[in-house]
Design a protein that fits this description.
The chain is mainly α. The chain has 2 domains: 1-47, no CATH class; 49-105, no CATH class. The protein has helices spanning 2-34, 52-87, 90-101, and strands at residues 38-39, 45-46. It has a two-stranded antiparallel ribbon with strand order 1-2. The longest helix is centred in the middle third of the chain and has 36 residues, at 52-87.
Length: 105
């Protein structure tokens, strides 16, 4: 008789457990959506670090990113010229060089 009671209670316990986990996920989603702080395992609020130092570091990283993008663009341009020179037929390149040496009329 005791085993029948446990077998009947198992689905109810599973449903209660799933409801608890689902509720925790839902409340966490609501907190994130509405800007409330999350909590760690000790109940202490976890705030994103938005100090002046962090903001300054983000600005510097953004500036460095822009500089690197500009440098990459110039390297791509130079590489395109080198590829054109390497893959170009020799006589065409020599004709272009000779055309540049002739004085413009």
């Amino acid at each position: 008789m005791n085993l029948d009671f446990i077998n009947a209670l198992a689905p109810v316990a599973a449903i209660i457990g799933l409801a608890g986990v689902g509720g925790w996920v839902f409340t966490t989603w609501l907190r994130v959506k509405n800007g409330y702080p999350l909590e760690n395992s000790w109940g202490k609020a976890i705030y994103p670090k938005t100090s002046d130092e962090t903001i300054e570091r983000v600005k510097l990283i953004g500036q460095e990113n822009a500089q690197l993008r500009a440098e990459l663009a110039s390297v791509k341009d130079r590489l395109a010229v080198v590829e054109r020179i390497v893959t170009d037929e020799g006589h065409r390149l020599s004709h272009e060089i000779e055309a540049l040496r002739r004085p413009a009329n």
